[in-house]
Each structure stands twice: as structure tokens, then as C-alpha cells.
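Input C-alpha cells:
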């Protein structure tokens, strides 16, 4: 007891010291911020008063530039200061969550390493009072038990011994409790983290990162890291913490927010994860869906159906035959075969489709078509077709300029002959020459420019071309139907099928090139199981200078059949020498009872462990009629709310069922319909189609309509698995008629 009291006193004193240090720093930085703010306003005012605002005065414009760069630097200092203040404020609430006592090999002193969200240094003594969780030494806390350890630091491997591992619960600057452990991070702390209610945004997990997760977060060896993790194993969390780690890293790896991109399945998911990086003290990063990429490349000239819309169409197909067709359509358009067809098509276009012409100007040959063709096809220019054509066009325009003067005097002579007024003749000549050049360039564009959408259409409209570029490839049996459906669908350029949208993106990158994303150095792909090979080829070609972290779960693949071999395909597509495939088999999200229940829906032989957090057993509820079911739902929603569960999701198989249910019960209880058509957030009680709930989690999940007609194929079984694994604390399933065979 005495020993505990001593420890307690020591810890309370340290906490006091840290809180005082933080308050001191906060005071200084806050007054600095005030000063900076005043300076900044003054600098802006000065700039406004002393510079011109018209582009006519070039000297003054250069003054403006100088002011602007000074202002930019000042603004940067100001925002950095504001960020530091926000970090100190966060730390005031809970400055650290762990401590290790570490003795480096060859030294007698033992360092007490306190670990928190951010570094905290005493500027006077240069002592690090709290280490950032991402600092090299912090890895020891996540990965090791007491005893000899080693960790990788920039200076090399550091060896030593850990004699203490302690965890703290500090809130509002007050010590709630602490305890020592000799094993990995104690389950109590994790239990507490996992028992909490859900908020509308994803949480950070720094205090309880598990060893397997830490290995992924801190991996710097690989250019491609592929993670297969069961539902709730922390894939998305780990991917985001990995980004925060990379943003913290030293010179070689340091990334800023605009060097990173997350490819997410839909805007709802993007919104859900958008809190994590700011919580970790980092700027937020861009989250892109593939549809966003499409719009970035094609702007408003075309429009594509979203991935969610595409999936809704599949689920709601009128017949099984139609559903199978739509699946086969997506499968073909996303396949390696189709990618090969598009590659060949670009080659075919260059070699056979460009209508080269002899180019004349002023009655002289500028280029012959043979010369132009051999220039384009010589193979010397290793670049996309559009860029080669542009070079060719520039070469011709240069030649045109060389001959422009003589052409102009020719025109002038002709004009003068017709007209005696010299002044008018000159301007008339200029106008004629400009018109002539414009029409020349327009003609030139006939073969130096092309439209990718028209090109893509031609591939399917012209059977001769399609046959030529697919020769020798194994095509699906229903290729005729696929081609017809494509031709029909492409009639409306503002409603292009999602799968063709991806084909168009790939074609554009290959034929025109794309330098829009050269700054991107790290790409995270979430829900990796639902993308086809073509998606990965797009990413590879778009983010040519990036490294990739790809996370997914083949058990949650609903858009296509997939098994773990997809990860080998991904590795092959990217072709990085340094890559690694990692498995996360332990699930943290759901209570033990919900996890056990959901595991019945997994493929046989799937290995999963569950964190043992006990709660109520899931319930399966049979109702005689839809009315009875609606009444029961409403009652249970109220019941869940009264139990203090923050977020409740009623998960339906598709949007139509969700909307119907919403219109039936919305007047009787407070619910919100979450749809892919609008930006939404996931607070309170929501009704949502299952594919939009992917990646999200809720305190209570109510799965609507689990009868044998609704869930009757292996695809449906996976949808059901996804729905059930969204629940943290409560799960109930409702049906009328006969229950699905997967839940018997
Ligand atoms: N080490 C951890 N400490 C605390 N909570 C954790 C930890 N790992 C995972 N979790 C929690 O488990 C839940 C699931 O995490 P996450 O959503 O990242 O998993 P996922 O594998 O992406 O899930 P899914 O594939 O089912 O969408 C989250 O609530 C997360 O905070």
C-alpha cells in the first residue's frame, strides 16, 4: 500500500508538472498568436494601401508580389502557431496515456518515457517530457512486454530493457487511475475503449493500438502494403493512423496533407473518417471516390452513375437473369481482359484510326502525311498519344509561323488590288490572315485532337475494331449482349454506367496522360475487395509516384466473387519489388455475442478471433405482418434510445426497401433516411441500405427483412454479414414469412 501511495504521489506530481508546463506554454503561445494576428492585419492593411490593384502598373504589381510572399510566410507562422495551441489544449485534457521505463544497453540511467498524442519539450532543460506516440521509442510500448527490447531509431537499432509499463486514464487534466502491466497493452483499457458508445465520426485508437496493428502503422519498408482484415479488425483505423505516422516521419518520408489521398467507397464513408487526422493533430487529407476521379478527368462534359447507384441497380434487378447479366457486365469491364483491350485499342487508334493528311500552307507542303505518321509511330516518343499529337501539332504551327509573313504579303497584294485605301487594306489583310490561320488550325485539329468519349463509343460501335483489338483474348460468352448494352447505355453521356466510367478513365489516362496527381506520394485504398483489376491499373497509372496501402476484407465483398487471391493480383498489378501482405484476424468492434453470431455467416474455414466483451445476445424477431414488424421496430428503437445507445441503424437490403420503410414509420419515430443521393451524416437513428453502411458502425443495428426471399444467395449472405458486423452493442434481426436459410 505504501508502495502504491509513493507511486501515486510521484505520478500526481509529474502530472502537475506537465499541466503547469502546458499552461505556461499555452500562455506564451496565446499571446504570440495575438501579436501575430495584429501584425498580420497590419501587414494586410499596408499591402492594400501601398500597392496597386490594377494590372496596368507593372512596377507596383511586383511590389504586390513581394508583399504577398511576406504575407504568405506570416500566415503560415500564424497557422502553425494556432495548430500548436490546439495541440497543447488537447494535451491539457489528457497529456499522456502511457509510460515505459527504459534502460539503454550500456547506460545505468533509466529513462521514464511518457507517451501521449504529441511531443512536449521543456525548452529550458531540453528534456522531452512527453513523447509523441509516433516517436520511434513509443513503438516499444505497443510491441513489447517487460524485458529486453530493441527499436529502430533514425540512428540505427537501439537496444535496452523495459522495467515498467504503465497506463493512465487522465481526463480534464486529472488523474483518474493508472495501472502497471507486464504484458502487452492491457485488455482493461481496450475494453473501456470498445465499450463506449459510438459517435458520428470514427475514433482514434492511439492509446490501445495492438502489436499487429502497430507493425502496419509503422511500416516504412514497403512500397505496397496489402492488409486483409476481418470485419472490425481495425483496418480503416490502422490505415488512417498509418497516415498520421507517415506525416510525422523524418526527412525521407515526411508527407503533408496534399501528398496523401484516401480512395473511399462513397462520400458517407469519407465523412465518417474525416475526423481522425484532425484529432491526431494533422491536417485533413483528400478523400476521393473513383467517381470523383472520373469527374476530375472529364469535368462536366460527361456524368457517371455512382458505385452505390450501380450496386443498387444490381440488387434491385427485376430478375435473377438480369442481375447476373449486370454482374457479368461489371466483371468484364473491370477485368484484365478489358484493360488489355483498351491498351490495344489505344495502339490501334494511333496506327490505324488517325486520319493523317498532307499539310499545305500558302501553296507549299508543310508536312507530308507519311512524315507525320512515321514521326508519331517511330516509337521515339514514349508518351501518350495526345501528347505526341500535340508535339506534332506544335511542329507544324512553328513551320506555319515561319511562312506567315510571306503569306501575309501575298494576301496584302491581293487586297490592295481590290481596294485602294492603304489603311483599310492593312487591317483587312490582318483579319483575313487571322481567319485563314484559324481555319488552318481547325483543320489540323481534325487529326491532332480526339475525344475520348467518342473514341470509347467507337470501340463498341465498330465491330471490326472490337474484333481486331480483342483477337485471341478469352471473352465472356455473353459478349454480344454486353456490347449491345454498352452501345445503348452510352447514348446518354450524362448517365454513363459506372463500369464504363472506369473504362473511360483508363482510356483517357492511356491516350491523353494525366499529370493532375503528381504530388501524391501515399495512397490508401479502403474496401479494396470491391474493386476490379482495372481500378488498380487506374490507380497505378494515375499515382505514378505514390506508395500504396490497400486494406480490405474478402468476406465483405458483395459486388463480385473474391477470395484472398485478389491481393496477389493487386501486388502483381502494382509490380512493386517491396511489398507485403498482412492479415488482421482479431475483431474488436462488436461484442463477443454479436461477433459469434455473425461468424455463422462467414465462409467455412475463415479464421477469426474476437475480443471478449460480453453483452446481450442478438435477437431474431419474427412478425406476422409488415405492420406488426413496423410497430415492433418503433418500439425497439425507443427502447434502444432509452438505454442510452447513441446511434441506431436500421439496415435494409436496398434503397427502395429503406425508402419504403422510412415513409411508413417516419411520422411515428425520429428517423433519418440515408441515401447515396445526398450528403448525410450518421447521427441518431438512421435507415440505410446495407452497401452504404459498409465501413461504418453503430451502437445498435436492426437488420430489416431477413426472410428467405430477401437473403437467398451467397451474395446476400455476405450482405447480411456486413449488416450484422456493423453493430457494437446490440443486434436484432426482423422478418416476416420464413427466415433466411443463412440464419437457421
Ligand atoms: N487497437 C484498438 N483499440 C481500440 N479500438 C480499436 C482498436 N482496433 C480497432 N478498434 C475499434 O474497432 C472498430 C472497428 O475498427 P475499423 O472500423 O477500423 O475496422 P475495419 O477492419 O475497417 O472494419 P470493417 O471492415 O468491418 O469496416 C472501431 O470502433 C475501432 O475504433
Amino acid at each position: 500500500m505504501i508502495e502504491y501511495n509513493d507511486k501515486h504521489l510521484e505520478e500526481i506530481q509529474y502530472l502537475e508538472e506537465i499541466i503547469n508546463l502546458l499552461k505556461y506554454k499555452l500562455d506564451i503561445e496565446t499571446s504570440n498568436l495575438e501579436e501575430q494576428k495584429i501584425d498580420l492585419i497590419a501587414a494586410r492593411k499596408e499591402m492594400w494601401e501601398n500597392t496597386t490593384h490594377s494590372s496596368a502598373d507593372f512596377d507596383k504589381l511586383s511590389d504586390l508580389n513581394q508583399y504577398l510572399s511576406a504575407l504568405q510566410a506570416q500566415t503560415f507562422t500564424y497557422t502553425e502557431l494556432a495548430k500548436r495551441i490546439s495541440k497543447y489544449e488537447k494535451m491539457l485534457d489528457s497529456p499522456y496515456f502511457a509510460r515505459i521505463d527504459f534502460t539503454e544497453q550500456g547506460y545505468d540511467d533509466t529513462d521514464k518515457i511518457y507517451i501521449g498524442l504529441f511531443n512536449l519539450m521543456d525548452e529550458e532543460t531540453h528534456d522531452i517530457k512527453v513523447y509523441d506516440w509516433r516517436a520511434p521509442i513509443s513503438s516499444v510500448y505497443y510491441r513489447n512486454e517487460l524485458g529486453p527490447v530493441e527499436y529502430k531509431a533514425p540512428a540505427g537499432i537501439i537496444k535496452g530493457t523495459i522495467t515498467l509499463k504503465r497506463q493512465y486514464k487522465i481526463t480534464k487534466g486529472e488523474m483518474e487511475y493508472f495501472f502497471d502491466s507486464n504484458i502487452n497493452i492491457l485488455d482493461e483499457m481496450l475494453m473501456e475503449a470498445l465499450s463506449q458508445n459510438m459517435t458520428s465520426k470514427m475514433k482514434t485508437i492511439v492509446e490501445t493500438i495492438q502489436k499487429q496493428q502497430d507493425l502496419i502503422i509503422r511500416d516504412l519498408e514497403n512500397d505496397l502494403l496489402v492488409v486483409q482484415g476481418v470485419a472490425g479488425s481495425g483496418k480503416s483505423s490502422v490505415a488512417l493512423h498509418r497516415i498520421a505516422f507517415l506525416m510525422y516521419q523524418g526527412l525521407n518520408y515526411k508527407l503533408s496533407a496534399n501528398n496523401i489521398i484516401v480512395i473511399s467507397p462513397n462520400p458517407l464513408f469519407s465523412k465518417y473518417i474525416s475526423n481522425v487526422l484532425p484529432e491526431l493533430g494533422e491536417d485533413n487529407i483528400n478523400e476521393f471516390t473513383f467517381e470523383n476521379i472520373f469527374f476530375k478527368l472529364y469535368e462536366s462534359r460527361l456524368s457517371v452513375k455512382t458505385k452505390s447507384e450501380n450496386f443498387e441497380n444490381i440488387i434491385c434487378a427485376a430478375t435473377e437473369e438480369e442481375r447476373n447479366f449486370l454482374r457479368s457486365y461489371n466483371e468484364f469491364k473491370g477485368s484484365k481482359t478489358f484493360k488489355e483491350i483498351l491498351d490495344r485499342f489505344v495502339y490501334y487508334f494511333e496506327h490505324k484510326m488517325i486520319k493523317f493528311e498532307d499539310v499545305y500552307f500558302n501553296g507549299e507542303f508543310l508536312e507530308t502525311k507519311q512524315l507525320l505518321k512515321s514521326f508519331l509511330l517511330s516509337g521515339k516518343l514514349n508518351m501518350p498519344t495526345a501528347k505526341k499529337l500535340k508535339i506534332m501539332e506544335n511542329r507544324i504551327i512553328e513551320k506555319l509561323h515561319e511562312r506567315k509573313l510571306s503569306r501575309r504579303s501575298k494576301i496584302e497584294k491581293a487586297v490592295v488590288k481590290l481596294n485602294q485605301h492603304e489603311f483599310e487594306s492593312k487591317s483587312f489583310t490582318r483579319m483575313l490572315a487571322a481567319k485563314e490561320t484559324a481555319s488552318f488550325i481547325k483543320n489540323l485539329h481534325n487529326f491532332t485532337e480526339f475525344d475520348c468519349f467518342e473514341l470509347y463509343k467507337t470501340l463498341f460501335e465498330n465491330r471490326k475494331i472490337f474484333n481486331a483489338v480483342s483477337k485471341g483474348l478469352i471473352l465472356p460468352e455473353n459478349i454480344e449482349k454486353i456490347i449491345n448494352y454498352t452501345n445503348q447505355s452510352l447514348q446518354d453521356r450524362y448517365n454513363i454506367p459506372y463500369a464504363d466510367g472506369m473504362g473511360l478513365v483508363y482510356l483517357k489516362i492511356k491516350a491523353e496522360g494525366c499529370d493532375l496527381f503528381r504530388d501524391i506520394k501515399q495512397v490508401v485504398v479502403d474496401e479494396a475487395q470491391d474493386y476490379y483489376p482495372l481500378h488498380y491499373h487506374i490507380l497505378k497509372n494515375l499515382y505514378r509516384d505514390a506508395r500504396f496501402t490497400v486494406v480490405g476484407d474478402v468476406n465483405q465483398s458483395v459486388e463480385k466473387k473474391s477470395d484472398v487471391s485478389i491481393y496477389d493480383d493487386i501486388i502483381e498489378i502494382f509490380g512493386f519489388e517491396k511489398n507485403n501482405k498482412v492479415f488482421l484476424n482479431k475483431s474488436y468492434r462488436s461484442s463477443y455475442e454479436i461477433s459469434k453470431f455473425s461468424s455463422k455467416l462467414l465462409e467455412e474455414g475463415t479464421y477469426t478471433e474476437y475480443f471478449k466483451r460480453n453483452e446481450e445476445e442478438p435477437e431474431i424477431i419474427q412478425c406476422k405482418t409488415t405492420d406488426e414488424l413496423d410497430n415492433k421496430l418503433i418500439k425497439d428503437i425507443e427502447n434502444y434510445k432509452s438505454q442510452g445507445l447513441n446511434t441506431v441503424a436500421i439496415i435494409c437490403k436496398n434503397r427502395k426497401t429503406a425508402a419504403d420503410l422510412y415513409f411508413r414509420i417516419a411520422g411515428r419515430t425520429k428517423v433519418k433516411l440515408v441515401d447515396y443521393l445526398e450528403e448525410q451524416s450518421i447521427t441518431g437513428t438512421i435507415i440505410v441500405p446495407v452497401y452504404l453502411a459498409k465501413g461504418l458502425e453503430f451502437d445498435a443495428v436492426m437488420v430489416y427483412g431477413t426472410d428467405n426471399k430477401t437473403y437467398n444467395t451467397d451474395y446476400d449472405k455476405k450482405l447480411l454479414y456486413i449488416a450484422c458486423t456493423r453493430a457494437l452493442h446490440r443486434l436484432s434481426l426482423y422478418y416476416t414469412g420464413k427466415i433466411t436459410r443463412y440464419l437457421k
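Residues 190, 193-194, 203, 205, 208-210, 213, 229, 231-237, 553, 556, 588-589, 695, 697, 725 surround adenosine-5'-triphosphate (CB under 6 Å). The mean pLDDT is 89.
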